[in-house]
Design brief:
two-stranded antiparallel sheet; 4-stranded antiparallel beta sheet; 6 strands
Length: about 300
């Protein structure tokens, strides 16, 4: 069955009237995420807390599953393996517990013994706490710069009211995703987590821009509508398109989570989680926030009429 039959074009869901419940839910989950980050912290991966990075080359095509099984049997902690370059090259990341140099050498000897003699060691590097702190700083700056760039883009394309509402919804999604990493230490916070954050931000703002663009079009076409009617009409008109985009991505990510193994699951599930909240905020949060910031048409304020929405 085609999606437009599941969500008819004449759908008239009153999203705006439910805004207080949405705002309450968003405030609770955002505060919970912030508190979890403050009191529970993050389970930093090797990229951030330090450890070893080893590049090896096998004589034949690398069997990542077999290599991972060998290293996990040593009980060294969370060990990450990934192919790069050719199918014989593998990068291995291992955590470091801050042992003495002699203990670190003993750990590396165990790893080399487990990998066998048919392996060429092309690089062995230790990531210290200083490098980890620099990566944390750079990651935070990357997210902040992305948010500022999105704010500027939306300010130029629309009005500052749209920009503020879009960035609030976007920040909400990123904070909630950080809450997932804080509440569930099963997921390591590593460089892949930064990718998940930026992908969440991109999906969230993309859907918000679609809704905002329709609001702007309807502002010019339906001047007799109240702001509440205008917002509901615009959200409903873009609902099918938003759900189609999100659903196809969700199905792809869900398949990877279920069939891709632990490594793929650890990477894809946070993206899936962020995508769900990004879709939610684009539909239920970003547009209703315009009731409080106001919207403009032809450089003039459009009457808001909050009383009519109660």
């Amino acid at each position: 069955m085609e999606l437009y039959r599941l969500i008819p074009h004449d759908t008239k869901i009153d999203f705006v009237s439910k805004r207080n419940y949405v705002f309450l839910f968003s405030v609770i989950i955002t505060l919970s995420s912030i508190l979890a980050f403050i009191f529970n912290g993050l389970n930093y991966g090797v990229d951030f807390r330090g450890g070893f990075v080893m590049e090896i080359r096998t004589q034949e095509k690398a069997d990542i599953g077999a290599l991972r099984e060998k290293l996990n049997s040593l009980q060294l902690g969370e060990v990450s393996l990934q192919e790069f370059g050719s199918d014989k090259d593998v990068m291995i990341r291992m955590p470091s517990s801050g042992e003495s140099q002699a203990q670190q050498n003993a750990t590396l000897d165990k790893v080399k013994a487990a990998l066998g003699d048919n392996v060429e060691y092309r690089r062995l590097e230790k990531i210290g706490p200083k490098i980890g702190n620099e990566l944390v700083h750079d990651a935070i700056m990357a997210v902040i710069i992305s948010l500022c760039a999105i704010l500027l883009y939306m300010w130029i394309r629309f009005e500052w009211q749209f920009a503020i509402c879009g960035v609030i919804a976007l920040a909400h999604d990123c904070i909630v995703l950080m809450g997932l990493y804080s509440m569930c230490h099963y997921f390591e916070f590593n460089v892949n987590s930064i990718v998940a954050l930026l992908m969440t931000a991109s999906y969230s703002i993309h859907d918000s821009v679609i809704v905002f663009d329709r609001i702007r079009e309807n502002m010019l076409s339906y001047r007799n509508l109240t702001v509440v009617q205008l917002l509901n009409k615009s959200i409903n008109e873009t609902l099918s398109r938003t759900m189609l985009t999100s659903l196809t991505t969700v199905l792809s990510l869900l398949a990877l989570c279920l069939c891709g193994g632990k490594v793929i699951f650890d990477f894809c599930f946070p993206i899936l989680f962020g995508l769900v909240f990004g879709t939610f905020s684009s539909i239920c949060l970003a547009a209703p926030l315009l009731l409080f910031t106001g919207i403009r048409i032809d450089g003039k304020d459009l009457e808001i009429g909050l009383a009519e929405a109660k």
